[in-house]
Design a protein that fits this description.
alpha/beta, Rossmann fold, NAD, binds zinc ion, NAD-dependent protein deacylase
């Protein structure tokens, strides 16, 4: 067994909770990855809920994640917004309140510093909590794949009203929140070691991913001319098959009147959070920009996957694309026995099991001190 590492934090924004870092890998593995990270010029990072867990942000994406007794995955859908906009707004108002009250952890800070120190770093986050921005991550090196709870847009597709960084709390009187954390408590408690029942979703997604890969010529994917074609999100169908989208309990939840929800100052339609819901596609221009950056040079040195199984299409595709470009892969996750398709790794890759808020500063320390 390796000895416990005594770690001095290079970060000053938040104090280290402990001077002893939990054992998450052998010295040999840590050194091997550290050396490679140091020499890497082009690095792509994909982040998921595991990165924000140490900031007290619950996991929302698994089938086991609930809010007020309703499945989060059922509420985070365009179908639900169209039918029950008051419920969807109430849910997002509570998530906004949680995110506004949370601070970035040392994992967010470590990534932000890495991106500032190395020009060739691009971070893709599936989190919508805005914590990477709070950690002062360089804006041009951060892509919020699923949007942000702090951005608001018009629900009318013909209208271009878009509000960036709306930190107003409450966003309107009818959506005032008093006890957000209580309503998320069951999932919040799981967030550090979330083994919630996501397997069913995960395995169905894996099947779809494999099917999708068979249908696509992977060499075509790497051509710079590739443009992301908007397509129906397969996850919407999966969620529908797992649970009814709108249950009677959801319909019975007390919510504000539609007239009291935020409305567009330009066209009077309902406003909505500028996040990507199930049943919607990622931003096409953003996706193309990421692909263009990847293809700027022949090679990508390293792909780091933090706190996510990378199975939600098309975020997970980036791992495959990075591998095709020669990248070695490093996975940082609380539970390495639930890595889905990421389990199929090569010998040259790394998997580190533990809390990203503790592991990332250890890896990036050398770079920060240089
Ligand atoms: Zn509008």
């Amino acid at each position: 067994m390796p000895s416990s590492r005594h770690q001095k934090s290079p970060f000053s924004m938040t104090p280290s909770p402990s001077t002893d870092t939990p054992i998450f890998a052998s010295e040999e593995e840590i050194n091997s990855f550290g050396k490679y990270l140091h020499s890497s010029k082009r690095i792509l990072v994909l982040c998921g809920a595991g990165l924000s867990a140490a900031s007290g942000i619950p996991t929302f994406s698994g089938d086991g994640a609930h809010w007020r007794g309703h499945k989060c995955t059922s509420i985070s859908s365009i179908d639900c917004f169209e039918e029950l906009p008051g419920l969807v707004w109430k849910y997002h108002a509570e998530r906004r309140k949680l995110a506004l009250g949370a601070g970035p952890n040392r994992g967010h800070e470590a990534l932000a510093v890495l991106a500032r120190k190395k020009n060739g770093v691009r971070v893709l986050t599936q989190n919508i909590d805005g914590l990477s921005q709070k950690a002062k991550h360089p804006k041009d090196r951060l892509y919020e794949l699923h949007g942000s709870l702090m951005d608001i847009k018009c629900s009318n597709k013909e209208c271009d009203y878009y509000e960036k960084d709306n930190f107003k709390e409450p966003i309107c009187p009818a959506l005032a929140v008093k006890d957000a954390i209580e309503n998320f408590a069951p999932t919040a408690r799981q967030s550090f070691n979330d083994k919630a029942s996501t397997e069913e979703v995960g395995s169905k997604l894996s099947e779809l991913t494999l099917k999708d890969e068979k249908e696509n010529n992977e060499k075509t994917i790497l051509k710079p001319a590739l443009k992301f074609e908007p397509r129906p999100n397969p996850l919407a169908d999966i969620i529908a098959s797992l649970s009814p989208i709108m249950t009677d309990e959801m319909k019975a939840e007390p919510v504000p009147d539609v007239k009291d929800l935020p409305h567009c100052p330009k066209c009077s339609s309902l406003l909505r959070p500028a996040v990507v819901w199930f049943g919607e596609s990622l931003s096409v221009p953003q996706y193309n920009e990421i692909i263009a950056w990847i293809d700027e040079e022949k090679r990508l040195d390293l792909m780091i996957v933090i706190g996510t199984k990378g199975e939600v299409f098309p975020a997970g595709k980036f791992v495959d694309i990075a591998k095709e470009k020669g990248a070695r892969v490093c996975v940082v996750n609380m539970d390495k026995s639930h890595l889905g398709t990421l389990t199929a790794r090569e010998k040259k890759d790394w998997v580190f099991e533990g809390n990203a808020a503790e592991i990332l500063p250890v890896f990036f320390e050398g770079i920060l001190l240089n």
